[in-house]
Amino acid sequence: MPPSRDLQGARDAYRNRDPKASVAAHSRRAEEKHQQQHGQYLKSAVYGGLDGIVTTFAVVAGVAGAELNAGIVLILGFANLIADGLSMAVGDYLSTKSELEYEKAERERERWEIENYPKGEKRELVELYVEKGLNEEDAQTVVDIFARNKETWVEVMMVEELGIVRTDESPLRNAVVTFLSFAVFGLIPLLAYVVARILPYLQFDTFVVAAALTAATLFALGAVKVRITGRNWLKSGLETLAVGGIAAAAAFLVGRLLGGFA
């Protein structure tokens, strides 16, 4: 049976400090597992996209600062899209896989300890709850209740002792989402140069257009990021825009300073 609450609704209620909405959210049934998966892939998409657009526009800004031709922008930009995108995807895959392997190993260890030394495991959990503020008698009562079901006991030990929450993340799916997001958003700073190459009769400042497209996308990604962080969308959007702008300005200045070596 799904939990008797709407997790996203509860988050929105907290963000808006709306007690009535919080009551309504806790009264609605929702598939929380689906929401967690949605949030998990949203995180990979947003952060993959941010990395993609920032690093690619840094390449564009560096080349523009060095006053090199547009062909260099396209070569370096697309090379960055593929190489850095694959690097991020592989990193995401390996880190997620390592986390899952660590979680599995620790869960097996906790299960073995419960089976072979239940008294010691109970004592550990009682001490943890006493540290959290329960008196020893109440802590012992709570632990005795958990201990009636071994799997529940294992899960409680994982969370309380190790801070590990069960996850159903897929390393491969995370990697694919990260790569696609990196590639799609990383393409945005290059669009003006691609259009200028395909349609040479169109006259416009490619760098200015690329900068405008990048700025708008950075702000949008920062605003969407609040679905993960729970922050104010305007502040998050402006912050992301500022960070991306600093990176681009640094790349532009480096390109300008070193342009004479090209």
Give the topology, please.
Layout (H helix, E strand, L loop, with lengths): L6 H9 L3 H9 L4 H34 L4 H47 L1 H14 L4 H11 L3 H13 L8 H17 L3 H8 L7 H19 L1 H4 L3 H26 L4
Task: State the secondary-structure class.
Answer: mainly alpha
Number of helices: 12
Strand content: under 5%
Q: Order of SSEs, N→C?
A: HHHHHHHHHHHH
Largest sheet: none
Computed over alpha carbons, the radius of gyration is 25 Å
Q: What is the averaged pLDDT score?
A: 84
Low-confidence stretches: 30-35
What is the share of helical residues?
over 70%
Number of strands: 0
Distance from N terminus to C terminus (CA atoms, Å) equals 65 Å
Can you tell me the overall shape? elongated
Verbal overview:
With 262 residues, this protein is an all-alpha fold. 81% of the residues lie in helices and 0% in strands. The protein is built from twelve helices and no strands. It has helices at 7-15, 19-27, 32-65, 70-116, 118-131, 136-146, 150-162, 171-187, 191-198, 206-224, 226-229, 233-258. The longest helix is centred in the middle third of the chain and has 47 residues, at 70-116. Mean pLDDT is 84; it is low at 30-35.
